[in-house]
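Chains adopt folds. We examine one example:
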Amino acid sequence: MTDTPETRSVRLLRVGEQVRHALSDILARGDVHDETLAKHMVTVTEVRMSPDLRHATAFVKPLLGKEEAVVLKALRTNTAYLQSEVARRVNTKYAAKLKFLPDESFDEGSHIDALLRAPHVAQDLDSE
């Protein structure tokens, strides 16, 4: 089988989704023995893999977006444990190094929605 850019990108998406599921499962079960993570429901919205599958960037959002900085710090503190658990559950040649970032897409969506509902924008949209 030849390795085309299309098959490579599908593989990146598939592995990223497997890592996302593994992380979500670990966090939902409370497998991480961390007081902060035990108190917060954390959603892993997306995982982007590097082309060599050695790095995974996980975009996370605590429930209701509360105490995001505290949750991110707790995730980063427990990165070694999370990496080992993900490596055990997702069968790849190398254990991906995890990096946690806040998911800003919900905030961006809310901002765009607010802009579209602004009176001076809404009047332009209604005229069509």
